[in-house]
Structure formats: structure tokens, C-alpha cells
Amino acid sequence: MRLIPICMTCSAALASPVLAHAGLEQTNSFAAGIAHPLSGADHILAMVAVGLWGAIAGGRALWVWPLAFVTTMLAGFAAATLGLYIPLVEPAIAASIIVMGLSVALALQAPVWAGAVIAGLFAFFHGHAHGTEIAAASVIPAASVIPYAAGFALATAGLHGTGVGIGRLATGSSWKCALRALGGGIAVFGGVALIGG
After folding, report:
1. Which of 4, 48, 91, 182 is exposed most, by the fewest CB atoms within 10 A?
2. pTM beyond 0.85
3. What are 138-158's pLDDT values in tens digits?
4. Orientation angle between helical segments 142-169 and 173-196, nearest 10 degrees
């Protein structure tokens, strides 16, 4: 039964477009914000991997790393909507998939603050990609931006929670091996996205 959530997550990721930053037609609603992180495998895999890594680390990492990701992602979003240009956003997003996947695959142990910095650094780029879409769509009024940001923040937290849940379910040694293999697969996907991008 524990394999079901893992398979569902992988299936959803593989059925999605590789990168979800080509621009959305509608970026001015709460529903669009919720849908956006679910529209590309890059978002799904990176955000689930943050939760998986937090579950492997345990303790405060379970909530600090996802919280750092969501908070810094919103900062990146705000920076982009205000017109701050950041180069290499897509390669940084692909790199986030690789690093987070490897962190899971290697069961990387890190101090809580270091994991928060790593998650936050990559989150800034994910948020910037969201904000660039808003800026490109000329949807700058707060009345439109805030519901969209709230939607993608909530969806992101949900993806982190999915990763934490899968990680917490994988308690047996065979399941831990499967979890690490999943991390390796996520890293490989990120490598392919980086080369293909």
C-alpha cells in the first residue's frame, strides 16, 4: 500500500510538461496559482524532494525546510514582479531538482540551518519564474497578484507535505532503499532537464 503514493507522485510528474515556465494564459487567480506548481514535473519533483529530504532528516527539518522554501519562493516571486532580472533561472531550477534528488538519494545529513539555506536558495529561482510570468502578463495590481501567490504557495506546501508523507511512510529498510532510488530518479530527471534546457 505504501507504494501507491510513490507511484501516484511519479505518474503525475511524468505526465506533466517538463518545465512549466513557458507562460500561463491566466495568472491572475487563486485557482491558477494552485494549478501552476502542478503543471510541470520540475515543480512537482523539486518540491516533493524537499519534503522527502526533510522526512529523512527528521526533527525540525520536517517543517523548517519546507517553510524556508515557501517563504523564499514568495520573495523571489515579489522580486520578479517588481522587475528584478535574475539570469539563469531555468538552469537553477533544473539544478534544484538534481541537488534535492541527490540529497534524498544519499540521505544527506545537514544542519537544519544549512538545509534551509539550500532549499531557500533554489526556492528563490522557482518563485522568480512564477513572478516573471506575472510581469509578462502585465498583471501587477495586488488584487490579482495576491490570490495567485497564495494559490501557488498553498500548492507548494501541499507538494512538500506529500514528500514528507511519503518519507514518513517509508520506514522499513526496503522502503528506505526505494526512497533513495526515487531520489536518484529525481536527480536524473533534473540532469536531463538541465542538458535539454
Report:
1. 4
2. no
3. 555 656 788 889 999 999 999
4. 140
Q: Report how far apart, in Å, the C-alpha atoms of 177 and of each of 49, 170, 181 are.
A: 15, 9, 6
Burial code of 33-69, b = ≥16 C-beta within 10 A, e = fewer?
bbbbbbbbbbbbbbbbbbbbbbbbbeeebbebbbbbb
**131, three cell numbers:** 513572478
Q: Report pLDDT digits (tens) over 21-35.
A: 444 446 668 898 899
The residues, any chain, with a CB within 8 Å of residue 183's CB and separated by 6 or more, are 49, 52, 53, 100, 101, 102, 103, 104, 105, 106
- Cα separation, 131 vs 147, in Å, equals 13
CA distance 54 to 65: 6
How open is the CA angle 133-139-142, to the nearest 5 degrees? 115
Give the residue among 138, 137, 119, 26 at the shortest CA–CA distance from 75.
119
Distance between CA 102 and CA 60 in Å, rounded?
A: 20
Distance CA 20, CA 39 (A): 6
